[in-house]
Structures are given as structure tokens and as C-alpha cells.
Amino acid sequence: xxxxxxxxxxxxxxxxxxxxxxxxxxxxxxxxxxxxxxxxxxxxxxxxxxxxxxxxxxxxxxxxxxxxxxxxxxxxxxxxxxxxxxxxxxxxxxxxxxxxxxxxxxxxxxxxxxxxxxxxxxxxxxxxxxxxxxxxxxxxxxxxxxxxxxxxxxxxxxxxxxxxxxxxxxxxxxxxxxxxxxxxxxxxxxxxxxxxxxxxxxxxxxxxxxxxxxxxxxxxxxxxxxxxxxxxxxxxxxxxxxxxxxxxxxxxxxxxxxxxxxxxxxxxxxxxxxxxxxxxxxxxxxxxxxxxxxxxxxxxxxxxxxxxxxxxxxxxxxxxxxxxxxxxxxxxxxxxxxxxxxxxxxxxxxxxxxxxxxxxxxxxxxxxxxxxxxxxxxxxxxxxxxxxxxxxxxxxxxxxxxxxxxxxxxxxxxxxxxxxxxxxxxx
Length: 427
Hints:
Elements: E1 66-72, H1 79-98, E2 107-113, H2 118-129, E3 135-137, H3 142-155, E4 159-161, E5 176-178, H4 183-197, E6 202-208, H5 212-227, E7 231-238, H6 249-258, E8 262-265, H7 269-281, E9 287-290, H8 298-303, E10 311-314, H9 323-335, H10 345-362, H11 368-376, E11 381-383, E12 386-388, E13 401-410, E14 413-421
Parallel strand pairs: 1-2, 1-3, 3-4, 4-5, 6-7, 6-8, 8-9, 9-10
Antiparallel strand pairs: 10-13, 11-12, 13-14
């Protein structure tokens, strides 16, 4: 996601920002080392060694090429994310192949399209597993990634999730890792921002009950907001993709009656835009808040002026002056006619594939089992979205989060940095 250039002035004040482009963006940043390998507190539970179930299958070995699956939403509602993820993965693979590959073997991407649906995600995962990939990168959606993880577990193949933030995702097995933060951090961070920084004391929550991501994010926001002393005056649900369509008047009428000063919308940009517009039409004057699922500029198409001034969590920013980000953007622009990634998933996709490649370089042999062990042993990997440490964290790297404000579009920029949080600040 993009943030106004004026916010780069924050750098002079010593504000350091990191994270991931639109779905996982923020002000100027440098890489951030996690405050500790095992973050403490209820929002970031300290992992227990050996707590996750391990696959018993052996996985696959590399042949003439090293096949890595990239499973993502190349079609469907989440296409903006999926396209960026795939392009980010391709960029990382092009780099390693241009450098001679790994142990003389070139890396080959095997693509699978989830069509933005969990049932298709399962089929896509089975397709790439049929090609005997040593690992899988994907997905952005938590619901889709869960299905990928289940299929990969049966084969003993590791999965590196890109933007899937559902906290319990990595409980699917010790073969699952991610390069983004979790909802156990994202929800509480947004609750703290709402309560402390925006002085909101009465909020309503609107959850997409069809999305595991939305359910988990609403739960963690709700718990933290109450703990801080706030009141949840209305708790409503809808289901994306249902017969309800895009008419949210019923739930919004209930919310309007409760007169909240904040409205937490934990769904994706596809629904949040229209909801914001209908909420304003229903007389709701509350501040809109949400998670990284807002990260696509198409939210402006659906929400118009209504979504302007809303706040959401993100991971990375194109305007980050750090060497890692600017080097990444230089390579991206060279392949995309000078354009920057339109969502955070470009950077996260790149990080997920680059991490997988780095782990393969460190692995004892070029096979799935060795790749799982090397991924688990990762410490201090310098990604575009920040430093990634997986060792001892049950697949969940402690990451910094930024809160951004939705603004009118100015060129490619439509987000403005508000504040950042590290895991140690949310306990």
C-alpha cells in the first residue's frame, strides 16, 4: 500500500517503520529485529518446542530442477493479492536462477490457482503436489491456506504462507510457516490504537462469518478492546458470497441504533468498501477500523468518500527508504514497466519465496524433509518486509505492524502512516 510522501518527515523524528506492502504498508522503515525470539504475553504466546504435530510422510526430492509450488488467487475476488504474490515469487526465482540456481539446479515454479475459494485451494494444492514439489508458497487468504496446509501435511511438504494471518493456522502442523504477523497481534494492536490513540470507548464489530480470517481478527480485537476498558455495543455478522449479496442494511440498522464511536470491519476490501458507503448512508458516524484485509486500492472504488479516514493494519510500505525495500522496488519496476506493487502481497510473496530459497541453500539435502528443518532453523532472515525469525516460534515470526489511514488517491498513493507497534508493546 502507499502512503503520502509528506509522512517521510517522520523519519527525521526517528520513527522507524517496517512491515509488508498493502495487505501486510507504512512510513519509512528499516529492518526490525524482533524484541525476542519467543514473544511474551497473551497476544503472542510463547511457543512450546515440539508442540505441533509433525508429518510422517517423507515429501519429495528435487529432480533435474527444484520444483516449488506457488498456490494463490490468480482469479476470483482476491486476484489483486494473488497476482502480486505470484509476481513476487517469480522475481525471487528469477534472481536465484540468474545466479546459477541452488547447487547447480534451477528453481521451477509450479503454479496452482485457488480461484479465491477454499475448495479450489485444496484442488490447486493437490495439483502442485502431484508434480512432486519440495515446498509450497501460499496463500494470502487464511481459509485457503488451511486447505493447502492439510493437503501438504499428508505428503510431508512444507508450506510458507504469504499473508495468511489466522492465529491457529500453524497448528496444522510443523510443516507450516509464514512471513507475516498473526491476528493475535493484529487485532489487539488495532484495539489499542482505537482506545488509546483515537479515544474510542464504544465500538461495534462487523464480522464476515464466511472468513476464518475475519472471525479470528474480530475475536482478538474484541477481547483486547474490552480488556482496555472499552465497550462493544453491537456485535453483528454477515456472510460474503451468500444470498445476502451486497445489501448490509439489516446489520447496519442494528449498529446505527447502538450509536458506536468506532466500527471495526474485519472483512476483506471487497465487502468493506460497500459496507462503509452503506454505513454512512445509514447515519453511522463512527470511525472505521480494520485489518490488513483492507489492503487493495479497489476499496476506494467500493467505498468512495465513505472509506476515507478509515484506519487499518498493514505490513510494509513502498516509500520505506531502507536498502531492502528500495532494492526490491528497483527490481520490481524493471519487470513491471516502472510500476510499484499494488498491494503488500508483492513484497510478502517475494519474501516467502526468498525465504524458501534461502532455507534450501541451508538444507542438508534438496528435499521436503530437509527443507522443513531448515525453515524451522531460520533466524534473522532479512526480508523486504522486515527481519524474519522462525526458530522457536512455531512458524510465526514476531513482526512489526503499522497502522495506516485511508486517503484520497494521489497517483499510486492512498495510505498515510499513523503509528507502528511491536509485539512487546501489545501484552
